[in-house]
Structures are given as C-alpha cells and as structure tokens.
C-alpha cells in the first residue's frame, strides 16, 4: 500500500526530477521514491560501518583487539605459511 506524502522541494530540483521522469517514462513519484530508497539504503550501510568502526575502536581501547603495526603485518605476509594436511 502506498501512502501519500507531501514534501517541499526547491523548484530546480522539482524540474530536474520531472525531466528524469520524462526521460525514463516514469512518474515524478517513481523517481523520488527510487531516489529515497537508494538514499535510505546507503544511510543504513553507513550507519552499520560507523557502528563497526566504533566497536573496533572500543575493543582497541580496552585491549581486546589485536593491533599490529605495518612492519609486523608485512613480515607476516613474507613468512612461510604452515600447511595443514
């Protein structure tokens, strides 16, 4: 079910949305709905990234996250790997 929502847009943005709708053979509502869906999806992804970063920073602060400097990391790349059979 669709719900009606009234929004205020700058005239230039309304014209551009209308032009995109015409090019695609869609309605302005379709264009705005798609743009809003994409915006919200990106916002959720960004929020999850921020949450993950804060979680890692917290673990580093409390010493529960292993931290290596670049030289240690690079040395580990060059070390021979043990092979499990």
Structural domains: how many:
1
> What is the overall silhouette?
elongated
Describe the biggest sheet? none
Low-confidence stretches: none
The percentage helix is 55-70%
End-to-end gap: 57 Å
Assembly status: single chain
Sheet/helix structural class: mainly alpha
Average the pLDDT over all residues and give the rounded result. 91
Per DSSP E runs of 2 or more residues, the count of β-strands stands at: 0
Q: Helical region count?
A: 3
Q: Provide the gyration radius in Å.
A: 24 Å
What fraction of the residues are assigned to beta strands by DSSP?
A: under 5%
Order of helices and strands: HHH
List keywords for this structure.
mainly alpha; 67% helix; 3 helices
Commentary on this structure:
- This protein is an all-alpha fold and 85 residues long.
- It is built from three helices and no strands.
- α1 packs across α2.
- It starts with 10 loop residues before the first helix and ends in a 7-residue tail after the last helix.
- The mean pLDDT is 91.
What would you say about this model in short?
The chain is 67% helix and 0% strand. The protein has 85 residues and is an all-alpha fold.
């Amino acid at each position: 079910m669709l719900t009606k929502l009234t929004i205020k847009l700058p005239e230039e943005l309304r014209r551009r949305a209308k032009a995109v709708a015409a090019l695609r053979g869609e309605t302005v509502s379709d264009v705005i709905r798609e743009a809003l869906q994409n915006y919200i999806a990106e916002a959720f992804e960004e929020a999850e990234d921020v949450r993950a970063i804060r979680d890692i920073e917290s673990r580093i602060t409390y010493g529960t996250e292993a931290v290596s400097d670049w030289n240690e990391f690079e040395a580990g790349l060059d070390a021979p790997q043990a092979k499990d059979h």
